[in-house]
Design brief:
Layout: E1 3-9, H1 13-23, H2 26-29, E2 31-37, E3 47-49, E4 52-55, H3 59-63, E5 71-74, H4 81-85, E6 92-95, H5 105-110, E7 115-116, H6 123-138, H7 141-149, H8 157-163, E8 172-176, H9 180-191, E9 195-199, H10 205-210, E10 214-215, H11 218-224, E11 227-230, H12 244-247, E12 254-258, H13 267-276, E13 279-284, E14 304-306, H14 317-333
């Protein structure tokens, strides 16, 4: 019997490419390829229904698709406990993300269903975008471009002064979170001749040092950094990593970049720090509420650049993630151990 593989299409390249790449292998491996298009119900953002999070669509839509499916492939689509309970034939789940937060991995593991994912799929994309924001905010690129479009030029001394920003060389970069993305940011920062500090309570100091950064406490990092960039996961209790108390410790005039999660920042405290000049500027690719409300006071501040959660979405990322998943699907079909299996401990 051929493996029946169901790909949940969600209008992203990753999901589409997983299906397309498998299509070229269907005859060779005896694959029965099926697709279902996710109904997002007109909602632009992602949903949370613990224990799964950041998913598009509704788990209920997919429950009826589960019987007879051997391998389920998703990108943004959810995989809930209810779906798994209606999937007696399911043998493998593939998710084209670096963090399988939209999958109930514990429930899958309890049923003996391995989950494969795409670690590092967008790490380079996020690291690149981080430096795009550092430079754009620090060197006032957007205000400068707007002046030119409005017919101005640099010969106005007042306007020129407003557009001046510091060079990166010799400045201190503080990296909060030295995982895969954080370490790639550190690597790029060395090319800009920056002094690099890093804080990550989950990594040994020697690992941080080996990446090219000096390990420090959060307080030291805040006090010394000219630029700060966040690459951490949110606190388990939902509290912000940086709130009013932390912003009061930040080096005056520092530039902050967040390409990780909106929940890392207390946005009221952030707006206050930006309005007062305590923070010199911020580049934000993520916010607490997405899509962002046009009434969000952050959008009214002149020293803030907000982008629509696109740091990880380069033109290369979708294919890279799809290739990772397809490689592991074919290994599984051939009876080999997948290379990128999510590991989770089930408590007795």
């Amino acid at each position: 019997m051929p493996y029946r593989i169901l790909t949940v299409l969600d209008n992203t390249d990753t999901a589409r490419l997983m299906h397309e790449l498998l299509t070229g292998k269907a005859a060779e491996f005896g694959l029965d390829l099926q697709t279902v298009t996710l109904d997002r119900g007109g909602k632009a953002g992602l949903s949370d229904e613990p224990p799964i999070a950041e998913f598009a669509g509704r788990p209920g839509q997919l429950i009826s698709e589960m019987p007879g499916t051997d391998i389920l492939l998703v990108h943004l689509g959810p995989v809930s406990q209810a779906m798994l309970a209606n999937a007696p034939d399911l043998k493998l789940i593939g998710v084209g993300r670096s963090g399988p937060v939209n999958i109930d991995v514990a429930a899958a593991t309890e049923r003996g269903i391995p989950v494969v994912f795409a670690p590092g799929r967008n790490a380079d994309a996020v690291a690149d975008f981080t430096f795009a924001l550092l430079l754009a905010v620090g060197r006032r690129l957007v205000p400068g471009a707007k002046l030119v479009r409005n017919g101005a030029w640099y010969d106005n001394t007042y306007q020129k002064t407003r557009l001046l920003g510091p060079e990166l060389g010799g400045r201190t970069l503080g990296v909060i979170g030295a995982g895969d993305i954080g370490r790639r940011v550190i690597r790029r920062a060395t090319g800009f001749d920056m002094r690099i500090l890093a804080h990550d309570p989950y990594l040994p100091a020697e690992v941080i040092a080996a990446s090219g950064a000096t390990p420090v406490s959060l307080e030291e990092l805040l006090a010394q950094s000219d630029y700060l960039t966040l690459h951490a996961r949110p606190n388990p209790d939902g509290s912000p990593l940086l709130g009013k108390a932390e912003f009061e410790k930040i080096k005056p005039g520092a530039i902050l970049v967040n390409t990780a999660r909106g929940a890392l920042l207390d946005e009221d405290a952030l707006a206050e720090a930006l309005a007062s000049g305590r923070l010199g500027g911020a580049g934000l690719d993520v916010l607490q509420e997405e899509p962002v409300s046009p009434d969000n006071p952050i959008l009214k501040l002149p020293n803030v650049l907000v982008t629509p959660h696109i740091a990880g979405y380069s033109s290369d990322m979708g294919r890279r993630a799809a290739e990772m998943i397809v490689e592991d699907v074919l290994r599984f079909v051939k009876g080999q151990e997948p290379l990128r299996r999510v590991k989770v401990e089930i408590q007795a």
